[in-house]
Design a protein that fits this description.
The structure is a single chain. This protein has 3 helices and 9 strands; from the N terminus they run αααβββββββββ. The chain folds into 2 domains: 30 residues, no CATH class; 93 residues, no CATH class. It starts with a helix and ends with a strand. The strands form 2 sheets. Strands 1, 2, 3, 4, 8 and 9 form a 6-stranded antiparallel β-sheet that branches. By secondary structure, the chain is an alpha+beta fold.
Amino acid sequence: MKYISYIIAGFMTIAMMLVFVNMGEWMQMVAKLPFMKVDPWISGGEVTDSIVADDYKIMIHEEVHQGLFTEDGDGYVQLDVSGCYDGSLAVGGSSYILNADSMHVILLEAQTGEEVAVRKCQSDGVWIMRVGL
């Protein structure tokens, strides 16, 4: 009986390690199933507006107010910025000045000129920014 519990514990340890090591691949595989809808917390919500020109493309997603268990009062808007852009932008009822190129992206408040703290990352040449509301 003692050895059976060791075997079960060893099997469960190996199973847990396999699950956590491959978690990203499994999540992508599950998200591709025809009946699954990708959660807006990960995707930033549906695209509601886009600004497109020859040298830039900006995709503005819908506002997301999703919290862990309930709706969150403070939401965010996700912006996908590719190319070089320097100009004004309206997001979530506020005006901003966006300065973006392949090396950096800066978001300033239009009225004060102060830099806005955003969560941002770059993926495949596209800046992904989450602007708090």
